[in-house]
Amino acid sequence: MRAAAAAAAAATSTAAALLAPGLKLCAGRARVSCPSRLPLCRVAVMASAPNSSFRPEEARSPPALELLTPPLSKFKVALCQLSVTADKSRNIAHARAAIEKAASDGAKLVLLPEIWNGPYSNDSFPEYAEDIEAGGDAAPSFSMMSEVACSLQITLVGGSIAERSGNNLYNTCCVFGSDGQLKGKHRKIHLFDIDIPGKITFKESKTLTAGQSPTVVDTDVGRIGIGICYDIRFQELAMLYAARGAHLLCYPGAFNMTTGPLHWELLQRASCLLQHAVQLEIPVQVMLLGDTPLLLDLQFLPLQHQRRGDLYQLVDVQRLGSQ
Would you place residue 196 in the very low, low, confident or very high pLDDT band (cuts 50, 70, 90)? Predict the structure, then answer.
């Protein structure tokens, strides 16, 4: 079992975070142990008696958007773990088969991993990059995702692929609706530059350009905030998505065996801690393909009543600039 867990962590992985109920769920291991929680009745009592001096409504600028009721109250999410080869055509066919398998098992939301259509290296990014705006033969991975999302009538968070735009390369996640249309794309904001002496040196910034915009997409399963891999380490982005009314956070990721365990051991232990409380409960069944499904029951913490707006504030620069 330990070897299987290590193999899963080493594989290209996807992290999905349920932000509306606030649960961060990270793929890579098939089991998640959760700490004990307060009974719901006690949580409700705590939530009903906020300290008026805290001024939680001032903890975000602009104020948080009203959280809308999601389109679905219950749906199944599939996280596709893929082995990547140097054969791009093979990778595309393999990803399509995994998506089709997930949809046949009832998934309404399917996620692919980071850089799933070719090797993860600075040498490979230019070779495997696609012109998403041009589409067609210039973007076979993109075209496949659009076609399969439409034919299966699912929402597809397409992991990420290297995108060529002008003279720049981006690590880009495309989100497709059940009509096959591109609903939004996220260019990785935080590039992973690491230098651990004697272990690993890797600088994405040698080849890739950082994205400039947080990404929130409205889909058939709800409002989704998108991050890619290292973006997950910057909690301000997740808090910003919460303030923008996201129901769900999705982080396609690919980690190596040096930095991967450092990330995922801690994140998995934290995966059942709720970070954003709402008045909704959305049962979501998550499938790791090939493993036993995980059924997670969501509970609440009264965080929205307890933020210290008198002491700190999260500023959404983009929203402020558009007002």
Answer: confident
Beta carbons of 264 and 237 less than 8 angstroms apart: no
Is 114 considered catalytic here? Answer: yes
Q: Residue 143 to residues 92, 133, 194: CA-CA distances in angstroms?
A: 10, 11, 33
Quick check: 147 and 287 in contact, CB under 8 A?
no
- Which neighbouring-strand residues pair with 215? 226
The reported pTM is: 0.78
Catalytic residue among 114, 130, 163, 204: 114
Distance of CA 224 to the CA centre of its chain: 8
Catalytic site residue from 80, 174, 229, 250: 229
The chain-wide mean pLDDT, for the chain, equals 78
Q: Please say if 188 is a catalytic residue.
A: yes
DSSP 8-state assignment for residue 1: -
Per-residue model confidence as pLDDT tens digits over 100-133: 999 999 999 999 999 999 999 999 999 999 999 9
Active-site choice (80, 188, 204, 250): 188
